[in-house]
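Page 37, continued from 36.
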């Protein structure tokens, strides 16, 4: 039963991330990912959206497909392509999602002229729908161009896909003809090396109980209590504050004894970055870990997503919280 509960919790985490993806504009935070895993994580939800009349076939690459891209952008790209493919199918049909490797060489006569030579990971989405004529193909990436009824499409889906692919130094190849279906091929530069785990300790490495003192600033009471429980169970001494004012008072009263501040980005009366600036004026040696359920412009514009800033995306597991905390505390 506990294993089923854990599985359901992990599914909820993934669903929450996907809902946030579709609900608001995201600021890109690229990272090295295995495209196989990211695509596979979205397909479960997309099967329910596409419906039972359309068979969704998944063919992952035989080996890890490492690329450097924001996983949210992968979700956006794949969702747009799948929804377009579904709309192109009248009644029963098939959509195939496939990941393969490809090498582009100069003058190979196969790749588009703008494609730079190199090794790529290819995300291919094929449908057996109505297809497109040559005139339609010329305009599919134009903003607001759509062949759908006004209540079914805005014409922004493929232009969004085009922008994401170009932003990540990739390119798109489209094959389509009337009544013969459509194939979109998304080429993304392949990473040369398998990514490391971003410096996070493994489970074995953080088995040693913590000894430091941590201040958690979070206005959601239940989450505050849960984080406190997680950290205290690992040996840390923990102070908690639900408001910036309470956090400031705690740091003033315990100057030079608190090692790490974990703060939400969005707080009442002042944001997390402003709070940290205030706390550092009282204790310049404090280390900081931001957390938030958002990765939108409002966070990025405050510098929270800068490479040198430690950030923990909500929702997170106990393992990830402890690993991240130890990573920040031991960061030279």
């Amino acid at each position: 039963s506990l294993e089923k509960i854990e599985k359901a919790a992990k599914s909820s985490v993934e669903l929450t991330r996907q809902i946030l993806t579709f609900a608001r504009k995201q600021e890109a935070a690229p990272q090295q990912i295995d495209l196989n895993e990211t695509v596979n994580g979205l397909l479960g939800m997309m099967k329910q959206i596409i419906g039972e009349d359309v068979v969704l076939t998944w063919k992952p690459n035989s080996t890890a497909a490492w690329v450097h891209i924001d996983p949210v952008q992968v979700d956006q790209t794949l969702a747009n392509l799948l929804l377009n493919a579904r709309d192109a199918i009248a009644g029963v049909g098939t959509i195939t999602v496939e990941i393969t490797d490809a090498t582009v060489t100069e003058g190979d006569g196969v790749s588009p002229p703008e494609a730079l030579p190199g090794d790529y990971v290819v995300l291919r989405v094929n449908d057996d729908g109505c297809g497109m004529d040559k005139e339609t193909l010329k305009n599919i990436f134009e903003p607001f161009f759509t062949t759908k009824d006004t209540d079914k499409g805005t014409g922004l889906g493929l232009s969004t896909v085009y922008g994401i692919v170009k932003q990540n130094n990739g390119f798109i190849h489209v094959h389509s003809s009337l009544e013969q279906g459509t194939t979109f091929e998304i080429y993304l530069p392949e990473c040369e090396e398998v990514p490391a785990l971003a410096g996070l300790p493994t489970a074995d490495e953080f088995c040693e109980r913590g000894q430091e003192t941590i201040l958690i600033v979070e206005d959601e009471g239940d989450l505050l209590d849960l984080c406190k429980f997680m950290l205290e169970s690992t040996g840390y001494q923990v102070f908690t504050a639900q408001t910036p004012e309470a956090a400031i008072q705690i740091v003033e009263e315990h100057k030079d004894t608190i090692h790490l501040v974990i703060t939400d980005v969005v707080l009442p009366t002042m944001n997390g970055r402003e709070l940290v600036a205030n706390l550092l004026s009282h204790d310049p040696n404090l280390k900081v870990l931001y957390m938030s359920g958002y990765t939108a412009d409002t966070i990025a514009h405050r510098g929270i997503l800068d490479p040198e800033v430690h950030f923990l995306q909500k929702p997170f597991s106990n393992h990830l919280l402890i690993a991240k905390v130890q990573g920040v505390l031991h960061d030279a």
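DSSP finds ten helices and twelve strands in the chain. Flag for discussion at group meeting. The chain has a mean pLDDT of 82.
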